[in-house]
């Protein structure tokens, strides 16, 4: 079954070229099923690129999904046309009365700011609290994962001197948790962040379970025991060349960013990257939609509490 998105959203052409089934709203109305309602709070500056990455992963499921793109404020993003934001994004206040089966909150390039110094932190905390009442399961990615851990459990990150940057191997810690179903015992995932939280801090919270971790990258996936809040500290959605683009952008800006680890063959940026994470990234989103959302959400969304 498809994801349902506006017919003229730029992601539709990209996904159609990849033979991914997408459906516009008019056709979706003819389907005699109750589709899942999923919101994406997109905090990344390049909205369109992130939309494509997430919609690609959400599409790999037999479930029909209606997607709302949500913005956190009305400020014009640097790398996305304002017309795109007006045409395809909802202000949070426009959807605050709605309930969702699932919500995805993306990362954000706010690595070195204290949370309280983020210009939209008050709105961010409002949305996080709203999600606990209005969403069956919320998936927080990268910066948003650390921000949610801080807000809900008082766990603060510390900043690394050098960015954790590259593709790292991880070990499944709870193989029978539905989110890890089908995972190999060892798998790879990209990271690009300065923030880190020691594994011991996760384990100190009775309500949390660490599902997968890495000796180099720390906790990768964790969840509350009721499955309503999920934290993923890496970027399973990244395209093959996303880390390369970031590396070359940093080099052009004169930043002393190291070559991303375990990414370029022979650590040589002139070579095409090795892609080792896409199957597990897709499986992570499929498992989240199936086991944490679809099989847990009520048929009547108004029953979410």
Task: Report the strand count.
Answer: 12
| CATH homologous superfamily heading | Class I glutamine amidotransferase (GATase) domain
Kindly report how far apart the N and C termini lie: 28 Å
Strand content: 25-35%
- Classify the fold: give the CATH topology: Rossmann fold
Mean pLDDT: 91
Please write the string of helix (H) and strand (E) elements: EHEHEHEHEHEHEHEEHEEEHH
Poorly predicted runs of 5 or more residues: 27-31
Helix content: 25-40%
Radius of gyration: 19 Å
Largest sheet: 12 strands, mixed
Query: Which structural class is indicated by helix and strand composition?
Result: alpha/beta
Overall geometry comes to globular
User: What's the CATH class label?
Assistant: Alpha Beta
Please, how many helices? Answer: 10
* Number of separate domains: 1
Please state the second-level CATH architecture. 3-Layer(aba) Sandwich
Notable characteristics:
single chain; 305 residues; 12-stranded mixed sheet
Task: Characterise the protein shown here.
It is globular, with a radius of gyration of 19 Å. Helices cover 30% and strands 25% of the residues. The chain has one domain: Rossmann fold (3-Layer(aba) Sandwich). It starts with a strand and ends in an 11-residue tail after the last helix. About 2% of the residues have low confidence. 41% of the residues are buried. It is found in: Cytoplasm. One of its GO terms (biological process) is L-methionine biosynthetic process from homoserine via O-succinyl-L-homoserine and cystathionine. Its EC number is 2.3.1.46. Pathway: Amino-acid biosynthesis; L-methionine biosynthesis via de novo pathway; O-succinyl-L-homoserine from L-homoserine: step 1/1.
């Amino acid at each position: 079954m498809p994801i349902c998105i506006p017919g003229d959203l730029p992601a539709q052409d990209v996904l159609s070229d990849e033979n991914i089934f997408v459906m516009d709203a008019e056709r979706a109305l003819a389907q005699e099923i109750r589709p899942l309602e999923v919101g994406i709070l997109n905090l990344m500056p390049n909205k369109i690129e992130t939309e494509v990455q997430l919609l690609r992963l959400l599409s790999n499921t037999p479930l029909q999904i209606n997607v709302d793109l949500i913005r956190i404020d009305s400020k014009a993003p640097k790398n996305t046309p304002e017309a795109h934001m007006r045409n395809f994004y909802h202000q949070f206040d426009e959807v605050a009365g709605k309930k969702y089966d699932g919500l995805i909150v993306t990362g954000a390039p706010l690595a070195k700011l204290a949370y309280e110094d983020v210009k939209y932190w008050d709105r961010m905390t409002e949305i996080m609290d709203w999600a606990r009442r209005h969403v069956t399961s919320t998936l927080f990615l990268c910066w948003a994962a650390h921000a949610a851990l801080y807000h809900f459990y008082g766990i603060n990150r510390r900043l690394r001197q050098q960015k954790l940057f590259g593709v790292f191997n991880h070990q499944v810690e709870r193989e029978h948790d539905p989110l890890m179903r089908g995972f190999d015992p060892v798998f790879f995932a990209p990271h690009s962040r300065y923030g880190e939280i020691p594994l011991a801090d996760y384990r100190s919270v009775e309500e949390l379970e660490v599902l997968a971790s890495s000796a180099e990258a720390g906790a990768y996936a964790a969840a509350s025991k009721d499955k309503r809040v999920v934290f993923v500290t890496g970027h399973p959605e990244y395209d093959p060349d996303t880390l390369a683009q970031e590396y070359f952008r940093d080099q052009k800006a004169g930043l002393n960013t190291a070559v991303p680890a375990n990414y370029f063959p022979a650590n040589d940026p002139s070579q095409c990257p090795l892609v080792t994470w896409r199957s597990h990234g897709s499986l992570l989103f499929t498992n989240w939609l199936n086991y944490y959302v679809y099989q847990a959400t009520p048929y009547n969304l108004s029953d979410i509490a």
